[in-house]
Amino acid sequence: MIKTPLCDLLGIEYPIFQGGMAWISDGKLAAAVSSGGGLGIISAMNASAEHLKQEIDIARSLTDKPFGVNIMLMSPFADEVAKLAADEHVAVVTTGAGNPSRYMPMWLEAGVKVVPVVASVGMAKLVTKAGASAVIAEGGESGGHVGDLTTMVLVPQVCDATDLPVLAAGGIGDGRGIAAAFQLGAVGVQVGTRFLVAHECGVHPNYKKKVLKANDISTMVTGKRLGHPVRQIKNQFSKDYLKAEYSTMSDEELEKLGGGALYRAAVEGDEKTGDFLAGQIAGMVNREQPAAEIIKEMFTEAEEVLKTAGRWLS
Ligand code: TUI
């Protein structure tokens, strides 16, 4: 059995978070992951507090286990969803794409545990001082909004910079990845891409098909010109967008080109104009499974790997 301080801190069986994926991580997926022993997370994404409240109610109707809410700090609704998370006393808030400090006193006051995603040592130190309960060190192998550093170099440096429990994210798709993350000092992992093909994940079937078909070199990063690099599966949209980034197109027009693309992928399954965010481990995801089975399988594998980790020692 693998049990780490993160399990005791949050009252979960397996030290794994399901990533908060915009337009994808809803109350149903979060409940399935939490019922399976991990921490399911609802994405507040770019939607209103009203939408988030509906998903929280769905999760609460499906599981008695704790779950979390992910707040994307660049969302125009960040203020109202941050307040709702406090009012609802959700067990955990994770944050992404920015500095969560301005909301931390409100969340801590409400008894919410805050676990920010960080992409640098500086941000890890800052959120440690601000009262975070743990940090997620996310490398650029992940899907969606990415930082510059890889998981391999970010995780040990974040572990050295904070006394908080560290979760590793980005590039973790099976038990080998969990075992490797633990060797770097992490005591938990966050996984997004593999949960895209969970039975309980309501993303469009075309999205699942794209992940199942992907190989090691299927993803690419766009969005550097506007300062928001995003990893996605290569398709017509990503190639057109990259070309536009290197053209004389204005920033405003470029922004318009990207607008709604994730919705078109996740909800409408539009293979040409949709933006199919996924991490580099997409090539390792070959099978649809229930969320609980994904978690169990990953940790059974990790246990096997860790048991034999000393086999070359003499
Ligand atoms: O946030 C994510 N992944 C996301 S957000 C998203 S929606 C979006 N769509 C278009 C453009 C941008 C976003 C899709 N996927 N992951 C967590 C994450 N956070 N990765 C990197 C970071 C991060 C980056 C900078 C965290 C803190 C940070 O601090 C910057 C600062 O203020 O110094």
Structural class: alpha/beta
| pLDDT averaged residue by residue | 97
Shape: globular
| Helix proportion | 25-40%
The percentage of residues in β strands lies in: 5-15%
User: Helices and strands, in N-to-C order?
Assistant: HEHEHEHEHEHEEHEHEHEEHHHH
CATH class of the largest domain: Alpha Beta
Low-pLDDT segments: none
Q: Count up the helices.
A: 13
Largest sheet, strands/sense/barrel: 8 strands, parallel
What is the CATH homology-level superfamily of the largest domain?
Aldolase class I
Strand elements, count: 11
SSE arrangement:
Blueprint: H1 5-10, E1 16-18, H2 27-35, E2 40-43, H3 49-62, E3 67-72, H4 78-87, E4 92-96, H5 104-109, E5 113-118, H6 121-130, E6 135-138, E7 144-145, H7 151-161, E8 166-169, H8 175-183, E9 188-191, H9 205-213, E10 219-222, E11 230-233, H10 236-245, H11 251-258, H12 261-266, H13 291-307
Parallel strand pairs: 1-9, 2-3, 3-4, 4-5, 5-6, 6-8, 8-9
Antiparallel strand pairs: 7-11, 10-11
The chain binds ligand TUI.
Brief write-up:
This protein has 314 residues and is α/β, with parallel strands linked by helices. 40% of the residues lie in helices and 15% in strands.
